[in-house]
């Protein structure tokens, strides 16, 4: 299709593809700038944050997929994600920082 050939051609070089990531670096950069976290935001920080988010997402989805498989389900449900996070010591510790 035209869309596919346009994306695979040389003219589309996204920040994400140049960084070897799937998560949207440009969107993360925009949200960092608009978020008021600092007066200025370097572009490297958006790449780093996108990489961290992508890694955490992949890790959680892998564990949630295992939980779904253990429950004989072919679809990941919110409960499977919760089980995955709560049963992993490091993720549980990370997410417990955000509880009231």
Automatic annotation (TrEMBL):
Keyword Ubl conjugation set for record: yes
MF annotations from Gene Ontology: DNA binding; protein heterodimerization activity; structural constituent of chromatin
Organism listed in the record: Anser cygnoides
Record CDD domains: HFD_H2A
Pfam families reported in the protein's UniProt record: Histone
PANTHER family: HISTONE H2A (PTHR23430)
Key words of the record: Acetylation, Chromosome, DNA-binding, Isopeptide bond, Nucleosome core, Nucleus, Phosphoprotein, Ubl conjugation
The Core Histone H2A/H2B/H3 domain, residue ranges: 15-86
Taxonomy, superkingdom: Eukaryota
Name assigned to this protein: Histone H2A
GO terms for cellular component: nucleosome; nucleus
Family: Belongs to the histone H2A family.
Assembly information from the UniProt record: The nucleosome is a histone octamer containing two molecules each of H2A, H2B, H3 and H4 assembled in one H3-H4 heterotetramer and two H2A-H2B heterodimers. The octamer wraps approximately 147 bp of DNA.
Protein's job: Core component of nucleosome. Nucleosomes wrap and compact DNA into chromatin, limiting DNA accessibility to the cellular machineries which require DNA as a template. Histones thereby play a central role in transcription regulation, DNA repair, DNA replication and chromosomal stability. DNA accessibility is regulated via a complex set of post-translational modifications of histones, also called histone code, and nucleosome remodeling.
Subcellular location: Chromosome; Nucleus
Entries under SUPFAM superfamilies matching the protein: Histone-fold
